[in-house]
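Troubleshooting log. The previous structure file for this entry was overwritten by mistake, so regenerating from the original sequence record. Sequence copied from the archived sheet and checked twice against the printout by T.R.
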Amino acid sequence: MENQRSTPTGKPAVVDLSTWQAARDELLVREKAHTHEGDAIAAARRRMPMVEIDGGTEVVGPGGPVPFIELFEGRDELIAYKHMWHDGAPIQGQCEGCTVSAWHLRDAVYLNARGVAFAILTEGPWDEVLPYLAFMGYTQPWYSVRGLDWPIGGPMGHFTCYLRDGDRVFLTYDITGRGTEAASGSFALLDMTPYGRGEAWQDNPDGWPEGQRPCWYWRQDASGEPTWDTSRPAPQWTRPGATPVTELGRHEHHH
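Regenerated output below.
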């Protein structure tokens, strides 16, 4: 590009506004293509078949066992996030990735306004889940699906979508891995910044700060440093009573 001056190590090139605008316009073409491809993928999702499941299967909520169909709250669609659980672990030892996802989903009012119910499902036993919810201050619906098979229970760390047709319930969509990032707007915002997520897998220009292990920022210690055994999932530090810890307290088995 023209009018480009020297680039400080690890920082974008300094240019004039017209040169910046030309680069922005060039990138916008790719961004629009990306958006259109995302629209096409969403259209393909809407054309997927569905599988009928037993809506009478009981899950456990704050009022005790309820049939799964009640999670729709009278609506036609339901999105569930499936939160991993470490049996017997203290609050700081619960899943850091799922904590980040659930923290971004504390309020489903817009989904509800669009006729879509939302719930978080976990295989944790309800007597362990309840104090965790109280500590986190969560108000979104949570249910224990302990011991239930997929697609109501089963593997955690997923988003799963269901459709209700009268008294019948159907599985329509499921995704895990980086597909769950759709719920965490912070990731998309970080991707807009010069340094992105600060992870080693990123494709960075030469001289950029060296990236760290994947998801390194999910846990922090009391001083804000990303670490492991003496840490909490990052959102927990916003909660009253979030004191420093010396261990995760995890056992081998988790769901």
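Residues 21 and 113 are 38 Å apart (CA to CA). Archived copy saved in two places this time.
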